[in-house]
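Contributing: when you submit paired examples, paste them exactly as shown. First protein:
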Amino acid sequence: MTEQNTTTAGEERDYDEYRVIEDLGGWKRTHTCNQLTAADLDKEVTLMGWVQFRRDHGGLIFIDLRDREGLTQTVFSPDVPEAHERAHAIRIEYVVALRGIVRRRPEGMANANMNTGEIEVYVNEWKLLNTSDTPPFPIEDRVDAAEMLRLKYRYLDLRRPRLAKNFILRNKAAQSVRRYLDGLGFLEIETPVLTKSTPEGARDFLVPSRMSQGMFYALPQSPQIFKQLLMVAGLDRYFQIVKCFRDEDLRADRQPEFTQIDIEMSFPDEEQIMGMAEGLVRTLFKETIGAALPAAFPRMTYKQAMDDYGSDKPDVRFDLKLVDVKDIFAGGGFKVFAAAPCLKALRVAGGLELSRKEIDDYTEFVKIYGAQGLAWIKVKEDGEWQSPIVKFFSEDEKKGLAERLGMVPGDIVFFQAAPVDVAHAALGNLRLKLGERFGLIDEKAFAPLWVTDFPLLEYDPEDKRWVAKHHPFTSPQPGQMDSIASDPGGALARAYDLVLNGSEIGGGSIRIHTPAAQKAMFSALGITDEEAEEKFGFLIEALKYGAPPHGGIAFGLDRIIMILTGAKSIRDVIAFPKTQKATCLMTEAPNVVGKKQLRELGIQLREKPTEAAPEAKKGEA
């Protein structure tokens, strides 16, 4: 149980020794709380930090002192009466400075789980730097407090050792990136945060202008256009660790503001960019957690990824693939399969053990992705097939299915008969669920993968037009520019994504660098010359002045850190994250602003908001 920072009437302290001091009085910290070892025995040291635990053994008082680096056990002995007497006033999360001698812990009392576990500091004197109210939750890793509460008191949550280590590692990663790219001649250049709204992709966050009322800036979704302009400017190699903003629905690996490692090069081809990117990721993993990634990352086309895994960011740490079985049932008696636009199967060895409830839960799960249901077959130990759909199969269909899938006793097979995108999304996400359920995923492994040959364009049925798969500045593969207008769905992009353990950690492309090609792309996207001039006129103008061939890649730094630390949510690697409703529980942003500010901006609200910020559902962050 967490001790409370309270005192009884008989314990009231009102004399000077117990007052918080106004300054350090010349004391200087000599070591962090994770630094001292047996090599420091008999040294006089000064430590400063927060009180993690306090244990009063009647005579000796033990204080575990904590800073961002770790813990050191300190001892207050009756042999030093003044320091010992005053130590009775210390409570958890008090901020103190301690001065004392490093001693070896008594025989049998060493703690092998602590870097400082062999020693303790025998305190001669100490200063009280600040007191603390009882925290709303314990400052320790095993805390089970709701995430909503921890986000409200984020500055306390960040004191927990696990979170503090995340940000130590994040800093280490950023410095590794800078060293690597600086060594390759890249220049770190900042680009604007207040820019022009060019809506192609997620929604922009808009910022009203006071000096140009009725006009708005947009916060950048990425520095895409600016980094291309830096190549036009002849700066050759650019990078930036940069904040980006997208107004989109959130999830565990997405935030409204996030950080990219943004990179652009002049005169490259795909091989140069991908080679540079592989070197960066290998260096980053080696220098932060000591992990060795492959000397060359494997590659897979977009089509193969979708066909085999139902995802353009496949987790290839386990070998469980989707199989096309449509031809087996073509013209057959089971009309659900025979008439399906796409029919995919997923065989799971050992799946016979799944209960009917589990299967029903998986059926509800795939409905999230537009599936109408989930057909299945169990292969019993005696080889008999158990399923409500088997009675509709002919013997030839059974034989063909068994041979195609390699079905053996103990298996379960799941089916999706649906449009291609639904079948892939449903079984692709079910595959991940089953990988976890059957322990198929090696959580300690890192499996990088390049996904290449993406479609240049994809059709948006809602807007009834073709849109860019990546962005409208991506170059088509050689020889395909002229066919974009006649066959927009057949063009492939000079684009590449880097996937790690089922997460897209980076993506990039070779860019369009001539005005004619860029106008042709805009035309294929249904963007008129007038719209193109309004949205992207400055870029088209710049391309007229000798733009070099160029390309690049951007990495999601937050996602990389999430993988490096083993965090389950991107919120655990962002210092002050937002909830799933894009609110900050600590600062209560977004909030209502005063009428004077609105008048200065020329803004009038239709109706008055009733609260400062929408509250997320209980337990939802």
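Second protein:
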Amino acid sequence: MMEFIAQNMAPIMFASLIIFLLIGYPVAFSLAANGLMFFFIGVLLSPYSGGSINLAWPLLHALPDNFYGSRVMSNDTLLAIPFFTFMGIVLERSGMAEDLLDTIGQLFGPIRGGLAYAVIFVGALLAATTGVVAASVIAMGLISLPIMLRYGYDRRLASGVIAASGTLAQIIPPSLVLIVLADQLGRSVGDMYAGALIPGLVLTVLYMSYILIMSIIRPNSMPALPLEARTLGHGVMSLLVALLVTLAVSYAAYRYLAPAHGDNADILGATAGVLFIYIVAIADKRLNFNMMSRLAQQVIIVLIPPLALIFLVLGTIFLGIATPTEGGAMGSVGALIMAAAKGRLSLDVVKQALASTTRLSSFVLFILIGARVFSLTFYGVNGHIWVEHLLTSLPGGEVGFLIGVNMLVFFLAFFLDFFELAFIIVPLLAPAADKLGIDLIWFGVLLGVNMQTSFMHPPFGFALFYLRSVAARVPYLDRLTGKQIAPVTTGQIYWGAVPFVCIQVIMIGLTIAFPQMVMHYKGTTVDPGTIDYQVPEMPGLSPLGTPPADGAAPAGGGTAPAAPDLSQPPSFGDSPPAKPATPQPDLSQPPSIN
């Protein structure tokens, strides 16, 4: 019995961890307690393991180095997490989400399902600026859900759209989970961001496609805004003219700057065009020139600051100007400036943002410390080898491995959130993926899309809990219409999430089928076979650097040097006098010791 337990310590340890988590113990303490308990058991059972357990008491001395080394306390990559968290919370307090939802809702209002399109569009923008799911879902639940219910949207559809668009912060950079995945996979955060950008945008388009299909199949479930609700009036044509002017100014600036700035001229030109139209819109609104419609003014004034913040954070990272940590720091400063410009920056807002940032950062850090304790023991019982053999032996090779792993992560996402999955499961999967030759950035983005479902899974999806906390539980009177609005039930929230979970599963399949959506981060691959090597010819030398053959005269004229005699050793001038030969000893007589 002892031999069986000792030789199967790895699966027993993993099963014990799952039981601890299902019982409800905190993840960080479950990891640490499990690791220490099985370390003690492993040391005692080591003589019965046949060499499969490599644990001894002095190995515990490695824990302080694991805690304070480059993997936890001194990890510069994880420093980006508090910066992006602080930025997202300040932006949520600044009222940016409210302004965006109101303005974009007015823009899309005349079409059927316009509010749903606006929620998805704003969700993608908030994802690219905040990177925090909770902030996005709560903000849109507070602002958009009452408006959608007021104008007759189906409750399940409205709940699903808000929850799903909020989870876009999981996959669109600067996502916190992408930072953690890059750290656990040992890859660059910048590469992870670049690889995840296109899948995040494709997922946004799939959400909008679903709304389009539902607006055709069930038009009464998402009516257009009535005329009296469109307070900004019409003005789409004015907005299109402003867009054309922006493009013209950007092109002119590009042509002017190209000779001096080269490859950066396109970015500088686009910046000049956007700044020009932004200044024109502000001046038109303040001085009442009335060159633009009210709708065009509001869209430009509300939309450009978050877009500028996105460029400040992601643009500098993709251009190689800043690291993700530096980008997060600049984003935090930009968020403070935006909040101050709106008159909503106060000491209380900063205190709340710092408190929330400290809680989330401590949560991540404690899980990571517990994971280091668990991994020390798990590696000591050769658990990584057991997992690697288990996964690489799946039928189907690389595709079979990807399908099996994604099914496992999808199932575990019912019970664990994305931080727990990233710190517990990903370190076990990465070696097997690397051994199969799978690009780890592609693998990380694929897991990120899959972990996104952890926010939407009934019954433990956190996005559903966030929405439940702000959705009406009892009937209430609408403040504009005076009508009684029925509450949103928990079942409606859960059923509304199901179609979007299916869309996320489709996105996983698309990412596996079309890896180039992620692999573009590598840039253009150069085929070594197409490189043409040319060796310049030197005067007086043949192409290989040897003297000209057949006594040909050198290029500069004169007599060709005689070819050296390679049968003799080289001579370096006058030879030194030869040394006298050493007499050979007479070996027929015994040696003389005198």
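If you have annotations for the second protein, write them as plain sentences, like these:
The first strand starts at residue 476 and ends at 477.
The CA atoms of residues 89 and 352 lie 8 Å apart.
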